[in-house]
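quick one, two chains, predict together pls
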Amino acid sequence: MTLSQRDLADVGVLIGCGLRPKLRPGADSEYRALLGRYRTDPEFRNAVDGVLDGLDAQVLSESDLGLVLGARRESVFAFRISDLPNVTRVSDRLLIGLVSVAVAAFAFPAPADFDDDRVHWVSVEEIERFLREVCERLKQSPDLVMREEESFEEAWRTYDRLSPGYKADKGKGKARRSPASSPYWVASVLTWMVDQGLARPAPTRGPEAFQLLERFRIQARELAGNATYAVLASMRREEGAA
Amino acid sequence: MSDLPSVGRAVFDESFGGRVRALLRIRPVADAADNAGRQSWGDQRYDVVTLALAAIDSVIARQGFDDEVSYDEVVAGLEALAATAHPERPVDEHALVARYVIDALLNRREREAPYRYQISIFSRDGDGAIRHRQMPAEFRLLTEHEDHARGVNVLRASADAINALVGGLEFDVEDEQAAIELMLARQLERGAFGQAEKAAERSRLLSVRYADELRTLLADTTRDIRTVLDQWTEQVPQQLERNRAHLEERLSAEAKALEHVRGALDAPDAEPEVAGAAARIAGLLEECRHRHTELHGRLVSARTTFLDEQTRQSFRPVGSLRNPNITDDVFLPLLTLPADLAVEPAETFATSIAGTQVPRIVRFADLVDDLLAPRRGSVIEDPPDPDDELDDPDPPAVSAEVLAAAAEVVDSVELPSRLSALLSAARGADLPAEVDRAAVERVIALSVLWSFAPESVEDFSTAVDTAAQVLGPTAVVDADGTRIPLSGWSGDDLIVAEDEDALGAWAGAPSDQEAS
């Protein structure tokens, strides 16, 4: 049996649902039905996977959460960091990346932590403190003197140089955070993660607190962690060959 | 033992540490009760221990089902208990107590870290010397999880919590089940209903633990089949088969026990105490049966899950099966890389964790609008000043009575209609004494005028709401050049219709309408 025109339309509908991270199959009966079909009908599944492959995307997980999609960087569906507010320079993109990794490292420090689906909470202040502490440790690392003789500047200094900023809960009036302050970047990344359905604000846990959602765990475990490791490994290999 | 006359030999037993560990499981609850004295409600004698056990019990009651209990639901339950215990205290305090208890069980004060205690292990060397070493004991009681289908956070009790509550279950679940059943049957025969009820309660808690074991196995299978492959090839098939037979047995056995209990209930000479206990046991057994039925369904699908996962995971790239080590493989290498080289991998991480973004196609018209739009405020808002929040909102310019009267007047006139007809109706309407007739007229006129030509007002949504409230949600207004004939007003006599179609119909036959 081959797929009909109608089936192919359903393939499109399901992919469309998967592209909306905040849509849950629990709230949409058509989504739920198509997701069920994706899980049980191999032909339909192959069609969905095939179309996604052509779009440089892939299914990372299919659960009650919905179809979680991952996009390769060349995909039309890939997120462009430069779309974020105030991201213009190369160092801005570096900061977005570093803070994103820091959030993941803070919540899931060891590989086994990904197996635990307990809820994870983060706040702007915690991530900022976490990054500062790592920077402090790197400053005191014994290799530093040796490395300082080299001409390049390490990535962590880009963060370390940012001003720690003012305390959010002090002072009157709507002082805006400057993009030269580190809390600005942490808050910017977490707000962006809320927009992408990776986190949600948790106002009952204090100002600027967030809950990392299941989607975050899936994206970090199934795609982001290993993809980044692969890039780093290939860079090391090239360096070794050079 | 001459060197330690007051200490028995048991402390050197291998099983001693196990007993200490078991005892420690209640320590967080005891600590919470202890610390309660330092809370603002500390001198009110709320029974924190009972509330904590009630919380764990209400979590267990729905654990493993589709509608696991949420944080807020447990809070609500405990609030009700606290309110019953101290009805004279304010509601806010009951909420504080409920949250305190649950947060203590989650170890929220230490960011949900496991409880950590050091226990002492004493042993004897061959020469009789006593050795001491410290061993850490770590465990959790309640954990918070995201419910995938509903998106809310639900609570689950750890095996530690379930065991601590049931009481040192170191033996095989199935045997325990059979033993309880036997005990229950005996007790029913002898009419020892108090005991029987306890037994039924235990049987229910065991079912929960049973479901939990199965859930863990299936979750591991879905996660990475290779970690449980050995289990699946050896123990699991027999285990599943045995479980299934056992479950079927239990389903019929529980039905029989239920019948037995109901028999006791129906007996004409049953003492009220016995009858009450029997009714409770019947309810309990009913719930047990419900649980077993659900569990049975899950058990039946277990093998299919295994086969499905085998197919799915065998086609998954091997790299993605391993959990990444973010700290050592990604985070630290990235930080120590030269900044210009680190951009590429850092951006890879951010892009791939982001998931997908649907590309927007820029339309010229939107672009112009966007460029002309006023500048948006900062994305990250500071929390509003608490003083501002407490202020009452401005009182509405038009009172609710006037609005209601205006809506009533419009209702009394058949639409489509001229504004003049509406205003005349308002002048002749039977209005309550406290409503100002001129204000009603003004509101009708303004609503019609606003619907015809929306002016930029400060509070746009209020204007829309008001017009919709007075004229109806879909009302449309048009002008045809006729002047308003009414004294006190000037300008176009506007036409009001319920919707676009009605207005079109009016435009098609204006003379008829005007004649009527």
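The first helix of chain B runs from residue 14 to 24.
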